[in-house]
Request: fold
Amino acid sequence: MQILEGSSDKNDAHDAVCEAIEPWADDVSPDILFVFHSSQQNPHIVAATLSERFPDSLIVGCTTAGEWLSGQHKNNALVLSALSTSDIRWSISLIEDLNKEASESANKVCDELLQQLDLNKDELKPDKHFCLSFFDGLSAREEPIIAAMANALGHIPLLGGSAADDLKFDHTYIIANGKAYQHTALFILAESKLPFHAIKHQHYIATDISVVITKADVDKRLVYRLDGMPAADRYAQLLGLEVEALTPQIFSDNPLTYPYGDECYMRALRRVCSDNSLEFGCAIEEGMVLNLCEHQNMLGAYDHLMDELKQHTEKAALLLIFNCIYRALEGSNTDINQLLADKTMAVADHVIGFDTYGEQWQGLHINQTLVALALGSK
Reply:
């Protein structure tokens, strides 16, 4: 597998793309090109510039809240990774209106993906096929769509992330087909002769401190009351803070989780609204009990993840990372992000990824998690 990569810190989208690909040969025409970039670069120009330069390549990606490239964790940058190999076949399809009925949209996309690869659904195998997902991170529609897609695709690995915009929460974009889209989900189905392995990583433990959602707007992921109190007031009270002190960094440091069985399903807080309600980044329901979390050591937990990956595959050719922005905020306090980026190079020759507004794992949409796909081997 041939992998090329590039990056740029330029804010001008056209200049950033040109700088990132400048070292590549003029005749390069990758099978697929992944692009992740900050809210500083115009996504429409990024998409159009790449499509003009690589007209025969699949070009996929999104806007971010942070960018990963081999050995680096960046902010306000554009990163690219281009893959060429006869051992993987790719297909892509979009859901351009996420408000449509989820199962109908998912079945349509699944049929389109399979048709492009000339496959029947019963030919999908978890050791030969995987699917990547990219969502508009402000759509609040990840849960029904990803659940429907998991049902449509069966038991193959399905993972991905929600596009971001550097915590502005204004506009997030998906890139595909030479265009930038909003309120859209992109799915990429691959048939691979190369080995691959999907991984999920969290480093939180639920405490016995809990709250109950007593009033909410489920569709908008807004919680108006916790334990009968204005939601922001009650959350701040638990932390011994004033509501004015609640920031993305505080949300990152003090996550909430929905414990179910032996698993913790993270429910990240996105922002305090003007009425002191709390906007969440993941599905919530009235009556749901949420627990405050304690942090494990992120570096230690990450070492265990890398050890797990080494047991399943030789050194990967490419590690594709979807990392929650709140993990990145936690890591930024002590330069942990750069240490994590360094550690990934022990398990992969190349790395690309982005900091997300949510992660997809099989049929679930989750928060404050890292999911990744290790592809190929040395």
Q: What stands out?
A: The chain has a mean pLDDT of 92. The CA atoms of residues 24 and 56 lie 16 Å apart.
